[in-house]
Amino acid sequence: MTAKTFEFEPHGVCPRKIRLELEQGRIHRVEFLGGCDGNLQGICRLVQGMGAQEVISRLMGVKCGQKPTSCPDQLAQALAIALREHEQD
């Protein structure tokens, strides 16, 4: 089975796009376009190979300062949408 690619436009954060690849419910690759490069590279490396549900449960609801969301929260939301879309295929 090959990885399926998804793209999302996050809201309320600096990155303008999140690109991710899922294969059998596991994160194959994540890339943020824009934002705090070093921190986002770290997040991407940490979640690579993890199950999408595990990442969602750990990152959903994380806030950045006074903002109601954050880059990790937006990644969790993107993963949740990707899983729903993948189930429909």
Structural descriptors:
single chain; three-stranded antiparallel sheet; 89 residues; 42% helix; globular
Describe this structure in words.
It is globular and about 40 Å long. It has one domain: 2-Layer Sandwich (Enolase-like, domain 1). The protein has three helices and three strands, in the order βββααα. Helix 2 packs antiparallel against helix 3. With 89 residues, the chain is of the alpha+beta class. The longest helix has 18 residues.
Helix and strand topology:
Elements: E1 4-8, E2 17-23, E3 26-33, H1 37-47, H2 52-59, H3 71-88
Antiparallel strand pairs: 1-2, 2-3
Helix pairs in contact: 2-3
**Overall pLDDT metric:** 95
Report Rg.
Answer: 12 Å
- According to DSSP, the number of beta strands is 3
Number of domains: 1
- By CATH, the architecture is named 2-Layer Sandwich
Residue windows where pLDDT falls under 50 for at least 5 positions: none
Query: Into which percentage range does the β-strand content fall?
Result: 15-25%
Continuous helix count? 3
N- to C-terminal distance: 14 Å
**Which structural class do the helices and strands define?**
alpha+beta
Largest sheet: 3 strands, antiparallel
What level of helicity do the residues show? 40-55%
Output the strand order for the largest sheet: 1-2-3
Global geometry = globular
**Element order, helices and strands?**
EEEHHH
CATH topology: Enolase-like, domain 1
Q: In CATH, what is the class?
A: Alpha Beta
Catalytic activity: a 2'-deoxyribonucleoside 5'-diphosphate + [thioredoxin]-disulfide + H2O = a ribonucleoside 5'-diphosphate + [thioredoxin]-dithiol
Pfam family, one: TSCPD
GO molecular function, one term: nucleotide binding
Protein name: ribonucleoside-diphosphate reductase
